[in-house]
Design goal:
Helix content: 55-70%
Order of helices and strands: HHHHHHHHHEHEEHEH
Structural class: alpha+beta
Number of strands: 4
Number of helices: 12
Shape: elongated
Length: about 300
């Protein structure tokens, strides 16, 4: 019975279905937080949604429509650089998010108290976005741009997103008053902290140590699909004998893809993932940078 359950859990189609269910739940929670807590109090989320809320207040164009329109260009750009499955999952998450924005907009607002909206809206939004990221997607096009910039220039994803959002909050201050901008900024920090808990790390890079019998194939797939170099070391287990140990540094957005790579090649591999507080040097490289160096 246990072996049957393990086979089901390790089945690629089953895991993919779980990913989409997780994204569905996360996108629904995020849409609820936006429409029931933040929008009624003119408190902005960051990124594309924040821009959409501003335009929605000025023009009355539905936020669900604006979210789809603004995210399409980012998906087109991302489709050329990001993995196919990441784009599919992100498109699915954005579609679900937009649909539920429209559905929740017809419900009675959860509260009109600004402090409650900031606290509960921020927490729920962090949970929703964290779930979407945890299962391999994203809801906001600015995150896609941040990941691309991270791959090319090594700028931290979290800091890129923060810069985008600060610009949006400053614009909101001029449009709706700086008290709204300060509420929005507070909501962003609450959301970020909750997202850290749900997704297990926002700005820090991750180090993956992989003990496997298929080192060449796994390291090749990591390089081809993630654009990350891999350090190959020899090790010896007390019981299992000689093993190959792979060491790789990557971003939090790539951990899910790394799991898929390893599970598809060596489901028995041992993986340890830890936080990296600082990176010195050029260990994290994209395919383009590696090809330039080899030419």
């Amino acid at each position: 019975m246990r072996s049957i359950i393990e086979k089901i859990l390790n089945n690629k189609k089953f895991r993919l279905a779980v990913d989409f269910v997780g994204i569905l739940i996360g996108a629904t929670i995020a849409a609820f937080a936006i429409e029931e807590f933040l929008v009624p109090c003119t408190i902005l989320d960051g990124g594309v949604v924040g821009v959409g809320i501003m335009i929605n207040n000025i023009t009355s164009i539905p936020l669900s429509v604006l979210t789809v329109l603004f995210n399409i260009p980012f998906l087109i750009v991302g489709s050329k650089k990001m993995g196919k499955m990441f784009i599919i999952k992100s498109a699915f998450g954005m579609a679900v998010f937009s649909i539920f924005l429209e559905l929740f907009s017809k419900l009675k607002n959860a509260t009109s108290e600004y402090l409650l909206a900031v606290c509960f809206g921020g927490v729920l939004l962090g949970v929703g976005v964290g779930l979407v990221i945890r299962f391999g997607g994203c809801l906001d096009g600015t995150e896609t741009v941040a990941i691309l910039l991270n791959k090319k220039y090594k700028f931290p994803v979290g800091k890129i997103v923060l810069v985008f959002n600060i610009v949006i909050f400053i614009a909101a201050g001029f449009l709706f008053g700086f008290d709204r901008a300060m509420y929005s900024l507070l909501t962003y920090f609450i959301t970020s902290k909750v997202l850290d808990i749900v997704e297990n790390g926002m700005e820090q890079a991750k180090a993956a140590m992989i003990i496997t019998n298929d080192s060449k194939q796994i390291s090749h797939e990591i390089y081809e699909r993630l654009g990350r170099t891999v350090t190959i070391m020899e090790g010896e287990g007390l019981v299992s004998g000689k093993k190959v140990v792979l060491y790789c540094v990557l971003t939090r957005f790539e951990i899910h893809e790394l799991r898929d790579i390893i599970n598809s090649i060596d489901a028995s591999a041992f993986i340890a993932i830890s936080d990296v507080s600082e990176i010195i040097g050029t260990h994290m490289k994209s395919n383009s940078s590696l090809k330039k160096e080899s030419e």
